[in-house]
Amino acid sequence: MKSLRSYAILYLIFLYAPIALLPIFAFNDATIIAFPLSGFTTQWFTELPQIPALIDSVKNSLYIAVITSILSTLLGICAARAAAKYSFRFKRPIMGFIMVPLVLPEIIVAVSLLVILLQLGLSLGAWTVIMGHVLICTPFCIAILNSAFQNLDSAMEEAAIDLGETPWSTFRLVTLPLVSPAIISALLISFTISLDEFIIAFFLTGTEPTLPVYLWSQLRFPARIPVVMALGTILVAGSILLLILAEMMRRRGLRRAGLQDKGGFL
Amino acid sequence: MLVQLVGMGAPLAILNTESKKGLALVGAPLGYVVLMLAVPLAAILLISFWTQDFQTFDTTPTLNNYREAVTDPLYRELLFRSIRIAGLVTLVTVLLAFPVAYFISFHVAPERKSLWLFLITIPFWTSYLIRVFLWKVILGFNGVINSGLQTVGIIDEPLTFILYNANAVVITLAHAFAPFAILPIFVALEKIDRSLLEASQDLGENRVSTFFRVTLPLAMPGVVAAVLIVFIPTIGDYVTPRLVGGPDGLMIANMIQVQFLRLNNAPMGATLAVIAMLSVSLIALLFVALNRRFLRGSR
Fold it and tell me: Domain with B104 in it: what CATH number?
């Protein structure tokens, strides 16, 4: 089975090749993105804070990502809790329907929202991007939260009720602490997705670009590419950090529930 | 009679309150999806029967857009090309992903499986735009592959068949959708009862025939899920064809964007979106139907 193992490692190299190149070119002292490398520089990184349009787009993106992650995690909690605790009519089709944005091409989500917003005469802006982002982030949140709520031992909640707690205080004192790692993990994942999302933002952002929309506009200018590489390096490093945090949270949640780790997100 | 009624009524009542609580809780996310997805999709369908009249819509229902979409060779070519590229991407992605999922499920120690899965998902979560752009850098005329191969002396002239065409789109998308293919296949493989494989070998099958007659059929639900979850979003991809596709690699999503944002012809864009969705759904249903003997009894 050695060949299978080396294939898997080759596959990992294929997966990581693009992001491994990112820092190499970000620190390369040349405006052309090609080998051979010419020299080491941090110039591209120091240029970053001096671009006002970039700073604005970062602020805009952070604002959108924070609100999106809160809203989609809240919706995800409702759906995951309902799916785990209650049986109701049309449960399977309803849950399936809520997960649809996960597989729908993003351009379809984007243009259909655009059409309806323009028909209603609403102006485009951060809120319209948030509307679209919540739609595509909620299924990911549900996927993460589902296992946490499913693994919840209902005997603990019943015990709390028997001991005189109200349903709300039971939720706050018993349920929430048990699922909070999954909630944090869902917040982080939806934040990351929103921060990176391009298509929906591209269609719905109006005059204030998000960071990916700004990046897209810069890709046309060869002279700006090294700066884009530097920015990309920071972005990728940030995403990886957030993901490691989310993964640690997910594992802590599994340990709290006393369960065996069976695999990643999704 | 009374006893019977009470006996039937009590669980029904419980069921009803439970059903109500569940529906109330699921109401918020459901309402959101209806409002933000179902209603807009219905609007797209409606508008696809309208026509653009300078700044306003002519709301007389007509099939003109559909007629134009199926007769105009440009639209037809883009649609068929999108289906072809998405199909190719799906094939390549799933074929490349299967051995990896198999390796993690069968040959990685249980406590290290989640680390492998985590490693596979990390690149997927990092900026999509930047990843696609880096493929342009890797595959380009002066790119990593060409300058590398030239330095080593394997080629004299840069290879041109790897950028600004459909090949580049396939490579880039196969990279982007890797975890989408690996995860469902991995889950299906994990569910396989290992004693079935032992039984097969005890009964005289060798490793290869055990794989094809036991493992693969049992993993098919995962493969089907992987195919669908790669194929459906791929057909609507916009960034990859735009950045690495060149003129011959453009896909239907690029035309939908042009209709909406450049030509200001939302009805035509809506029509193309509807046609793309319909073709995707049809192909997906056909695929599921062809594989239904593997899917039966899987849940």
Answer: 1.10.3720.10
